[in-house]
Amino acid sequence: MTEGIAPATYTKLRACLRCKLIKSEDQWLKDGCENCEQLEIKNDSERMIDCTTSRFEGIISMINPAQSWVGRWNRLSNKIPGCYALDVQGVLPEDVPEEDEEKD
C-alpha cells in the first residue's frame, strides 16, 4: 500500500483545487501534489497559491481509498491515502489541463 499523506500541522492548511488533497503550505512546497504531479507546485510558492486553496469545507481521512465506499462516493478511490476536502472554493489557472476523467 502507498504511504499516506497527513497534514504536518493544523495551521496554514491548503487543499489542491484538482484532487482536494489537504496538506500544510510547507508540505506543498516541499513535495508538491502526489496525485497531480503535472501541477508542478513543488518549490514554487506562486504556483502553490494558484493551484491550492485555503477555502475548503470538511475533511475526509482515508487509509485505503480504493476499498473505501467514502473514497468511491467522492471519486477519490484512485488517489493516495491521506486527508481530502469535501468541497473546495477556487479555480485552477487556465494553463492547467483538466484531470483525465478515465482515471476516476
UniProtKB/TrEMBL annotation:
SUPFAM superfamilies: RNA polymerase subunits (SSF63393). The keyword RNA-binding does not apply. Its main location: nucleus. GO terms for cellular component: DSIF complex. It is found in: Nucleus. Keywords: Metal-binding, Nucleus, Transcription, Zinc, Zinc-finger. It comes from the Eukaryota. Residues 13-89 form the Spt4/RpoE2 zinc finger domain. One of its GO terms (molecular function) is zinc ion binding. One of its GO terms (biological process) is regulation of DNA-templated transcription. Belongs to the SPT4 family. PANTHER family: SUPPRESSOR OF TY 4, TRANSCRIPTION ELONGATION FACTOR SPT4. This is Spt4/RpoE2 zinc finger domain-containing protein.
